[in-house]
Amino acid sequence: MYRSHILVCAGTNCHSGKSDKFIEYLDEKLLEHKLNEEVKVVKTGCFGLCAFGPVVVVYPEGIFYQMVDQAGIERIFAEHVLKGRIVDDLVYEESKKHGVIEPFEQTDFFRKQVRVALHNCGVIDPEDINEYIAVDGYQALAKVLTTMTPQQVIDEIKASGLRGRGGAGFPTGLKWSFAAAEPAGKKYICCNADEGDPGAFMDRSVLEGDPHVLIEAMAIAAYAVGADEGYKYVRAEYPLAVQRFQKALDDARAMGFLGENILGTGFSFDMHVKLGAGAFVCGEETALLTSIEGNRGEPRPRPPFPAVKGLFGKPTVLNNVETLANIPRIIMEGADWFAGMGTETSKGTKVFALGGNIVNVGLVEVPMGITLREIVEEIGGGIPSGKKFKAAQTGGPSGGCIPAKLLDTGIDYESLAQVGSMMGSGGLIVMDEDSCMVDIAKFYLDFTVDESCGKCAPCRIGTKQLLEILEKITQGQGVMEDLDTLKTLSTHIMENSLCALGQTAPNPVASTLEYFWDEYVEHVVNKKCPAGMCKDLLTYTILPDKCIGCTICARVCPVNAISGKVKEIHTIDEKCIKCGVCVDKCKFDAIIKV
Amino acid sequence: MKKIANVEELNAMRDKLKDKIGIRHDVPNNIQVVVGMGTCGIAAGAPAVLSAVTKEVGRLNLQNVTVAHKGCQGNCENEPIVEVIIPGKEPVTYVNMNSQKVTKIIGEHVVGGKPVVEYSKYGRIKGFE
């Protein structure tokens, strides 16, 4: 019996803040004070509040400590662990809002969340299979193997209304039933953990925080469709996730949750881990399967769909990490429970990686149907430094920008598509008034041009053309015709590309053109960037009435573009590279960009 | 690591491991045993009392009990102090605690529901005179 648990987040973000050192320190100190049998240190996955990491949570009180450093952990040990005194100044600000320290579950950030896929993240030690078993781990697998037929499993998943969380939203139960309907023989279950959208890290968190749930879900899927072998395709850029998943795999195998005759039921299933080499296109299902086969990761036309002819030509189910993370809960709690959350067409919850200009940068899981406003303003804590919300980008490079007037859009597959964006895998990047929408479109196109595999012309050549036009506009050389070209070209690429990468790549351009037309016109006609982001359309000047000649700007300028004597008005010449350092350093607000 | 051969073994293992993570869940209806761990309490031997409480709760495998600690309550001469809070009932404060007393309190009050009157501050408890 442990009277207290100290949870130390070991997700990638907190890990980079040296949280692994805290665990060593605590273990050593507990031993020294002979408390190692009373207080337990637990290394957990991500809590979601990455902006405030490294995170340490102390139970039974549920006190959430933020931005802990070595000095901080020493104080937490000396005060809280030894004497039961909460270290006030390290407590997560939000939980102190009402004058008393509340358990973190009651703060705005956590209260509105519903954790299904992230159920165990930040609760259990991902590297300890015993903790997973203690929270009913592998019970869903036991249930399907002993009490359900494969058809019943598929019916249950169908009834739950679960749809693919990788972006396209295809009904998961239906996908399974296609593969199950194929004649018996070799079949595969694959898991897509090649999370590539800039700013998205939902799948990584599940892999790092609750790896066993994926093994369990893949075994359930294998039972449902009649497969006996699985592949997990995970990007090599996630070393911690790969390492934890591999550990989970070894443990699950050692305890008999993988291999021959699982739980004495006669069902056999095992799986491999395949590392992706970092190509964005390998997140596309046909490209991913081709890559597992050992070939160059390129998509192929569908049909035949993978459920019929997939990996090594055999029927294959390919599900995204987050989709799979929902499966054991659905089996345990029932399809009705899951279908009771969300909207008419989109059931359950969705995990979003909140990023950009928002206070609570991190990971949130919300019920479908919640509005963007609730996510941004309540859970996300709004925009920092009192700036105004301008747009939210969902769906990564395949998604679009949603403007302030559509903030009350409910989050589900259909309504996001209606406003010109998409659910995508769940990246949600918030932009404030200082963001230039042409620049944003350019950023995403730059990404897709890099990542286009080059197999089909519309994507390979089309996206490059889009990017060149956008560059022209941001450099002040655009003409009004360019805007029409952008529109028609976007439509062409969407209609003619081979795979989803090309079909959705123009979305950032199309949506910003629709909602921020005036901003494009401003760039083209007046050669001005209203947000002050496009360097070529800016000049920096020193206001003579404000400059006192302190020389700071001249000293910090990296290219010596500022000249002037002490106590005389300074000037900026044409050597200026528009880096903005002088503006930040000037104490008299004497430098402006126009 | 031992292979799990069937569902019964899995269930048995889960039940055995449950208390490893129990306190990480929301348990508002738990009985609380709170040990005063102010400087005064620590000087009077509260750490040993806290250890004793923890061991006893663990030994009896009491899933519905949370062991907590708190600071000085201004009653320093009577430390170590242990408070037993059963939801819906008056909290009971025990004074001058030691490991032997803890065993009795956990057994009779926390498990049995009957306060140990003679260990309370004034030797009497409202409702149990």
In a few lines, what is going on in this structure?
The complex is a heterodimer of chains A (594) and B (129). By secondary structure, chain A is α/β, with parallel strands linked by helices.
Question: What would you say this structure looks like, in words?
Answer:
The complex is a heterodimer of chains A (594) and B (129). Chain A has 594 residues and is an alpha/beta fold. Chain A has five domains: 105 residues, Glutaredoxin (3-Layer(aba) Sandwich); 211 residues, NADH-ubiquinone oxidoreductase 51kDa subunit (Rossmann fold, 3-Layer(aba) Sandwich), CATH 3.40.50; 84 residues, Ubiquitin-like (UB roll); 89 residues, NADH-ubiquinone oxidoreductase 51kDa subunit, iron-sulphur binding domain (de novo design (two linked rop proteins), Up-down Bundle); 55 residues, Alpha-Beta Plaits. Chain A has 24 helices and 18 strands. In chain A, the strands form five sheets. A five-stranded mixed beta sheet of chain A has the order 7-8-6-5-9, with helices on both faces. Chain A has a five-stranded mixed beta sheet with strand order 11-10-14-12-13. Chain A has a four-stranded mixed beta sheet with strand order 2-1-3-4, covered by helices on one side. The radius of gyration of chain A is 26 Å and the shape is globular. Chain B has a single domain, classed as Glutaredoxin. A four-stranded mixed beta sheet of chain B has the order 2-1-3-4, covered by helices on one side. The model of chain B has no long low-confidence stretch (mean pLDDT 84). The interface between A and B is large, with 41 and 40 residues.
